[in-house]
């Protein structure tokens, strides 16, 4: 059986690194972005998909295209986000409502839409196939609010909640959901240590897991799990 993956959010660091890792492990990989570089993506052995995460209603069509081109993906990665800086620094309500709505469409509504597609696909795959949905996260849901990060923080809080909910709701089906985030060696913000290769290593480890484990998955700059962190699934 051919294994395949769909990564929504094909940035040059995290998205591309994860895509190439999965390809190297034998996966067919489709990468979705608003303006895909078709020539470069194809040269890398990946499949470019045009999709706009600010329009969640278009994700089903993009997912259907992935299924036609490479088969139903058993690994789905949400790696998109949007960020609007307040026009008045430290004044979160100075952000135009339209900008706030746009950013939430990208980072929350599209997580829901893509997870909905993924679960529909997972149900058509053999039970022996690893089925994983991974959201690229950060520490914003777990630290004190940062006024300038209002739109990004709201997205990550929403994304983390959805992942936690889905991990619980679909546990009996063995559909695995992860909110994955790189942290420093002490569990804080990774800063300039943020690494595409670390994400690639960590995400591949998640794909190979035999059981759900922690939905909030934290890893360090070499891609290894940050062992001091634990959550209760329920």
UniProtKB/TrEMBL annotation:
Which SUPFAM superfamilies does the UniProt record give? NAD(P)-binding Rossmann-fold domains
Q: Name one Pfam family in it.
A: adh_short_C2
**Gene3D superfamilies attached to this UniProt entry:** NAD(P)-binding Rossmann-like Domain
Any one GO MF annotation of this record: oxidoreductase activity
Record InterPro entries = NAD(P)-bd_dom_sf, SDR_fam
UniProt entry keywords in alphabetical sequence: Oxidoreductase
Q: Write down the superkingdom of origin.
A: Eukaryota
Give the family from UniProt: Belongs to the short-chain dehydrogenases/reductases (SDR) family.
Q: What is this protein called?
A: Uncharacterized protein
What is the species listed in this Swiss-Prot or TrEMBL entry?
Botryobasidium botryosum (strain FD-172 SS1)
């Amino acid at each position: 059986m051919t294994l395949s993956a769909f990564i929504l959010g094909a940035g040059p660091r995290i998205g591309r690194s994860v895509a190439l890792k999965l390809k190297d492990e034998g996966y067919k990989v489709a990468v979705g972005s608003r303006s895909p570089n078709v020539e470069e993506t194809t040269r890398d052995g990946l499949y470019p998909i045009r999709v706009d995460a600010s329009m969640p209603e278009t994700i089903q069509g993009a997912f259907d295209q992935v299924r036609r081109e490479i088969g139903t993906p058993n690994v789905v990665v949400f790696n998109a986000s949007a960020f609007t800086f307040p026009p008045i620094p430290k004044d979160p309500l100075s952000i135009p409502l339209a900008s706030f709505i746009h950013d939430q469409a990208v980072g929350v509504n599209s997580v829901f839409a893509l997870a909905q597609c993924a679960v529909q696909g997972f149900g058509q795959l053999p039970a022996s196939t690893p089925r994983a949905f991974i959201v690229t996260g950060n520490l914003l849901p777990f630290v004190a609010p940062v006024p300038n990060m209002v739109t990004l923080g709201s997205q990550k809080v929403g994304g983390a909640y959805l992942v936690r909910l889905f991990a619980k709701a679909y546990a009996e089906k063995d559909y695995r959901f992860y909110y994955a985030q790189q942290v420093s060696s002490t569990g804080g913000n990774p800063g300039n240590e943020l690494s595409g290769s670390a994400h690639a290593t960590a995400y591949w480890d998640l794909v190979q897991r035999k059981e759900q484990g922690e939905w909030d998955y934290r890893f360090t700059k070499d891609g290894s799990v940050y062992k001091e962190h634990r959550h209760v699934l329920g």
